Amino acid sequence: METEWPFRLVRCKVTFPQRPARAHDLGVFLRLAELMADFGAQDVVLLQTLNSLWMFLPTEEVLGLRDALKPLLDAGFIVDAQVVEAPLCDLNSNVLYTRPDLVQHIVLYPDMPETIALTHDTPRICELCQVRPSLRVPERDKESGVEEFLCDVCAGFREKSRREGRFNKLGGPWEKENLTVAWVRVDLDYDRLSSVLRELFRRYVKANTDLPDDKISEYVEQLRDAALMVDFTRDYNELAGRFVDALRRAFGDASIEEIAGERPELLVVALKQAGQAFTIADTFVGEFSSLFPLCEDDSPISLSISISNAKYPFFEHWRFLDARERANAVRVQAVGRAELELSVPRFKALRGLGLEEMKASTKLHKAAAVGARTGSRLLEQVDLLDGIKEYPNLFAATSQGFSVADLLAYHKIAGIGGVS
Ligand SMILES: [Zn+2]
Fold first, then answer.
1. How far does the centroid of ligand 1 lie from the alpha carbon of residue 38, in Å?
2. CA quadruple 334, 338, 342, 347: dihedral positive or negative?
3. Helical H runs in 298-403?
4. 270-312: per-residue pLDDT in tens?
5. How close is the Cα of 125 to the center of ligand 1, in Å?
6. d(CA 156, ligand 1 centre) in Å
7. Ligand 1: distance of its center to the CA of 146 in Å?
8. Which range has the worst mean pLDDT, 37-51, 174-188, 313-327?
9. For the whole model, what pTM was predicted?
10. Under a CB-based contact definition with an 8 Å cutoff, are residues 15 and 51 in contact?
C-alpha cells in the first residue's frame, strides 16, 4: 500500500495562543516570520505566507507530520493542518477541494504539561498564553511597577523584540502621545485563490478556443493548479514588498512599524494627519491593480486596516485583521466608529466621487453629528438622505449603489488622524 500512497499534501494555518499585551510581545510575529522563512527554504514546501504553509511530505519516510512541523511547535505555535494522502500523480493542490472525503483535519499543539503544578518555581500560569507555567520571577515594568508572570516562551518573544530594538515607536512615543495608528494586514486567501484561478482559466479557454461550454467545464475541472498557486504566491509576495516600499516613501520609516520583520504582511502605521488611512488603501490598490489587473473584481488578496489609538489592545485588531469573510478586498474599520468593506473597483469608484469636497463633506459631517448626539444610526441616515439631491457628489454616490452607511463610514474614516 505504501508504494500506492506515497505522498501527503499538508496545508497548514499557523496560530498562537498568546494575547500580546505590550508592544514587545509582538515578538511572536518576528519569530513566526523567521520560522516561515526557514520553511520556505525547504524542498518539501510548496508555498508559504506569513501564516500559511503548504507541504508535500513523502509518507514512507520516518519523518511524521509532527516532526516536520517541530520547529513551529517547539516555538509555541499551534498548527491547524489539512492532510490528504494520495498517489503523487493524483496529488495536486485542488485535491483539497475536489476530494473533501480524503481530507483529514488535524490540530497540532506544542508539547504542554497536562496539568500545571503551581510551585515556588512556577508560581502562576503564564498571563499571555495561559497554557504554560510561568517563570519564578515576574517581569516588572519599570515605569508603572506592574508585575506580570510570563512563561519562558512568552518572555522569550518579549526579550527578542527588545534585543532587536523593535516596536519602540509603537510601545514608546506613539502610546505615550496616544497617537492614532492603523494596523495594516495584507493576506492571501487560498480557498478563494483556487476558485479565482479556475474562473480565470475558464475565461482564458473561452476567449481563445471555440470549445463548447461543457467541454470547457470539463477542462476546468481537470485543472491542476499547484504550479499556478506557486506563481501567484510569488507575485503576492512581490505585491506585499512593493506595498511596504511605497508606504515608506509616502509616510517615512519613522511612521511605520514592521510587525512581522522581513515579511511585510503586518504593519502599524502612525496616522499623523486626517485622510492618511485612505492614503494607505490607495497605495495598496495602486500596486495591486498594476500586478493583478485580472483579479480586481474577485480578489484572493485583501487589505485590512484597523484604526484606533496606539493603546488599544492588539488582540482586538487581530480579530478583525485575521477574519476576512466576505469577498471584499479592501476592509477598513475605525474601532467602534465605522466599518467599510468594498471590492477594489468599488473602492476606486468611491474614492473618485470627491466626497472630501466642502459641500458634500459638510453635509456628511452634519449627519454624523446627529448620529453622535442621538446615538442612532437610523437618525444619522435619515439626516443624510434629507435633501440629498442638492449635493451632486452624494447623490451620485447613492445612485451608484453606495449605501448611506458606506458614505458615513467613508467620511468618518477620512477624518481620522493625529492625536486622539
Ligand atoms: Zn506564555
1. 23
2. negative
3. 314-321, 344-351, 358-374, 377-385, 392-399
4. 999 999 999 999 999 999 999 999 999 999 999 999 999 999 9
5. 8
6. 9
7. 17
8. 313-327
9. 0.92
10. yes
Measured in Å, residue 26 CA sits from the centre of ligand 1 at 13
Which residues, at least 6 apart from 407, have a Cβ–Cβ distance to it below 8 Å? Answer: 355, 364, 384, 394, 397, 398
Sorted by sequence, the CB contacts under 8 Å of residue 287 that are 6+ apart come out as: 239, 242, 243, 246
Q: Which of 38, 43, 48 is nearest to 75 (CA)?
A: 38
Name the DSSP class of 296.
Answer: S
How many A from CA of 145 to the centre of ligand 1? 20
139 Cα to the center of ligand 1, angstroms? 12
Could you tell me the sign of the dihedral formed by the alpha carbons of 42, 48, 52, 57, in that order? negative
Rounded to the nearest angstrom, the distance between the alpha carbon of 29 and the centre of ligand 1 is 14
Cβ 133 vs Cβ 122: under 8 Å: yes
Q: SS3 for 195?
A: helix
Taking the centre of ligand 1 as the mean of its atom positions, its distance from the CA of residue 130, in whole angstroms, is 6
Spacing, Cα 70 to ligand 1 middle (Å): 18
Backbone phi and psi for residue 125, each to the nearest 5 degrees, phi listed first: -90, 140
Residue from 116, 95, 96, 118 nearest 105 by CA: 96
400: cell is 451608484
Sign of CA dihedral 369, 373, 378, 383: negative
What is the rounded distance in angstroms from the CA atom of residue 409 to the CA atom of residue 415? Answer: 10
For residue 16, report the distance from its CA to the centre of ligand 1, in Å.
10
- 111 three-state secondary structure: coil
Give 88 Cα–ligand 1 centroid separation in angstroms. Answer: 40
Average pLDDT over residues 108-136: 86
> Which grid coordinates are listed for 66?
509532527
